[in-house]
Each structure stands twice: as structure tokens, then as C-alpha cells.
């Protein structure tokens, strides 16, 4: 019981004081370091990659939970058991859910250790740290907006032909989506983008924007809302409010739909052609997002090791972004 109190107190103190004593808030640098860590991971230079994650955890007041997940697995792979348990606890306090932990095949042996029994007993308390660090009111509001948005968008599925689907999007879906987007802009202005840092979950805000950008080609060409928001979203990446992958998914829809599905950009919405990979890597690097080749190599490494790198947005072909 004493050990439990000491460990939990450490996590609670770390979570509470990290904001006050953080020395870095430039998340463009943060994502650049994750970019470098992933380049090392695909080379199987795990010690060097883990050193980068260690520096991130020491120097930033907010950590994207995916980075705790990856670091936990790398530490476990390197037989650094105490360190793996530490990152697992911090990951839970950052939003890593029990279902996801148990579903990680690479951590199967970790979940059979005595220390896991201790961590399970701490789960609710660690989860409370997460719940206290996010804005619950805005979380509920953005979730509800996204669900309403999604339900309305489903109406296009029952329209036959692209013309009918475009008409539904422009006349029926757009008014509701624009209302949600207007509220989203207010939240961004007052609180920041409602992503993982603010509400603990990014796809809700991302979904509202990506659906906005996929209404129709004509709508995208005449749209003024997203072009106005785009530089604000880029700024949100630098502040740690929005991940590069979520921005890429949002932006990819706009570029792809506005071009009439003729142009590939990030490779999520539309499969890239070989002559588009270089340009894709260029715009990916600008926002701190891994190269196309690196993503594909991470997918291969997942298959070889059973590690899960929790790559957001999973396109076709086993998650790989392939070039024709």
C-alpha cells in the first residue's frame, strides 16, 4: 500500500507541476524530434530513439499520448522494465485506455508481470489525472457536434450519383456543418483547437473540418472558411493543440476534393502517384510529419515485431501509403 501511494503521488505531482516548470513550448520542435525518433526506429536504432523520447518527456508540459505508447514499447523491447512501467503509467494519466493497452500484442508479456497487477489497481486514479487535465465541458460539446455532423453526412450515402451527392452536401449538410464550424472557430479563438491537449481526443474536431472540406469540388472552390482557418490550424500545431497527422487529414481532403480528385498531397485521402511522393514528403516535413517511406517502413516493422506505432489515419493496403 505504501509503494502504491508513493508511486501515485509521483505521477500526480509530475502531472500537476509539469506546466509550471516546463522549459519548452515550441511544438514545431517537438514534432521535429518525433520525426527524428521515427527515422531511428525504422533503422532499429532503439536506444537512440528512446533517448529522444526521454528528452521530450523532460522538456515539454504536454505529451501526446501516442509518444508514451511508443516509448513504453521501446523500453520494454530494450528490457528496461522499470522505465516501461513508468511510461505506461504516464500514458494512462495522458489518456491511454485499458482496452488499447490490453489490445497491444507486443505488451502481452508485460501484462503478465506482477507490476501490471499494481498498475491495474492504480488505473482509476491515473485516469482521474487525465480527466482533470482536460476541459470536460468542451469535450462533451465538440463530441456532440461531431456526432450530429456525422449523422447528417450519412444522408449523402443514400443519394445515387455524384451530382445528387454534391447537391445534398451543398444544400442539406453544409448549413449544419457551417454552424458547427463557426462554433469550432470560437473555441479555437478562446481555448485553442479542441484536440488531445484540450479535450483528450482529436478526431471529433478533425472530423468536423474534414467533412467540411469534402462537401464537393464546387463548394471547396468557393469556400472562404477553411482558407481562413488554415493558417490558424498551422499555428495550432506549433502550440501543441493539433497533431501534424490530424492537420494532414483535414488539409488532404481540401486539396483532393478541390482538385476534383486529380491531385494527391499527403496520401491519406487519395493514393499517391510516384511523381507526387517527393512533394508529399516536402509538405509533410514542413509540419513535422513522417515521410511516406518512413510510414511504410513503420508498417513493415509492426508486422515483424508486433509493436504498434499507433499511426493515425489508416489508408488502404494495410495502412501503407503506396505510390502507383
Key traits:
69% helix; Serine Threonine Protein Phosphatase 5, Tetratricopeptide repeat; mainly alpha; disordered N terminus; 324 residues
Sequence stretches where pLDDT stays below 50 over 5 or more residues: 1-13, 15-22
Percent of residues in β-strands = under 5%
Rg over CA atoms, rounded to whole Å, is 21 Å
Helices, by number, come to 16
Approximate helicity band: 55-70%
Number of E-state strands: 0
Q: State the major sheet.
A: none
State the end-to-end CA separation: 59 Å
Overall, the morphology is: globular
Based on helices, strands and strand pairing, what is the structural class? mainly alpha
Order of helices and strands: HHHHHHHHHHHHHHHH
Question: Can you lay out the helices and strands and say which pair or pack?
Answer:
Layout: H1 2-21, H2 27-42, H3 46-59, H4 65-77, H5 81-93, H6 98-102, H7 114-133, H8 136-153, H9 162-191, H10 196-199, H11 203-212, H12 217-222, H13 225-239, H14 244-258, H15 277-286, H16 292-305
Helix pairs in contact: 1-7, 2-3, 2-16, 3-4, 4-5, 5-7, 8-9, 8-11, 9-11, 11-14, 13-14
Amino acid at each position: 500500500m505504501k509503494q502504491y501511494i508513493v508511486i501515485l503521488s509521483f505521477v500526480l505531482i509530475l502531472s500537476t507541476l509539469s506546466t509550471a516548470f516546463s522549459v519548452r513550448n515550441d511544438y514545431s520542435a517537438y514534432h521535429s524530434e518525433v520525426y527524428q525518433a521515427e527515422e531511428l526506429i525504422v533503422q532499429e536504432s532503439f536506444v537512440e530513439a528512446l533517448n529522444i523520447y526521454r528528452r521530450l518527456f523532460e522538456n515539454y508540459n504536454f505529451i501526446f499520448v501516442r509518444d508514451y505508447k511508443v516509448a513504453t514499447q521501446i523500453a520494454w523491447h530494450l528490457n528496461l522494465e522499470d522505465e516501461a512501467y513508468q511510461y505506461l503509467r504516464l500514458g494512462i494519466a495522458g489518456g491511454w485506455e485499458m482496452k488499447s493497452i490490453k489490445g497491444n500484442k507486443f505488451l502481452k508479456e508485460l501484462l503478465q508481470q506482477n507490476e501490471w497487477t499494481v498498475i491495474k489497481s492504480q488505473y482509476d486514479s491515473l485516469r482521474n489525472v487525465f480527466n482533470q487535465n482536460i476541459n470536460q465541458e468542451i469535450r462533451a460539446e465538440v463530441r456532440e457536434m461531431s456526432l450530429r455532423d456525422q449523422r447528417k453526412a450519412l444522408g449523402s450515402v443514400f443519394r445515387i450519383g455524384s451530382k445528387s451527392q454534391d447537391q445534398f452536401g451543398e444544400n442539406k449538410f453544409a448549413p449544419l456543418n457551417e454552424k458547427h464550424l463557426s462554433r469550432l472557430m470560437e473555441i479555437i479563438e478562446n481555448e485553442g483547437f479542441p484536440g488531445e491537449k484540450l479535450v483528450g481526443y482529436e478526431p471529433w474536431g478533425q472530423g468536423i473540418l474534414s467533412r467540411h472540406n469534402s462537401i464537393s469540388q464546387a463548394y471547396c472552390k468557393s469556400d472562404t472558411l477553411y482558407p481562413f482557418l488554415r493558417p490558424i490550424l498551422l499555428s495550432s500545431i506549433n502550440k501543441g493543440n493539433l497533431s501534424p497527422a490530424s492537420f494532414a487529414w483535414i488539409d488532404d481532403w481540401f486539396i483532393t476534393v478541390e482538385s476534383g480528385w486529380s491531385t494527391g498531397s499527403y496520401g491519406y485521402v487519395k493514393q499517391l502517384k510516384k511523381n507526387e511522393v517527393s512533394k508529399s514528403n516536402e509538405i509533410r516535413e514542413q509540419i513535422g510529419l513522417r515521410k511516406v517511406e518512413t510510414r511504410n517502413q513503420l508498417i513493415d516493422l509492426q508486422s515483424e515485431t508486433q509493436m504498434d506505432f499507433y499511426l493515425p489515419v489508416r489508408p488502404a493496403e494495410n495502412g501503407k501509403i503506396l505510390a502507383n
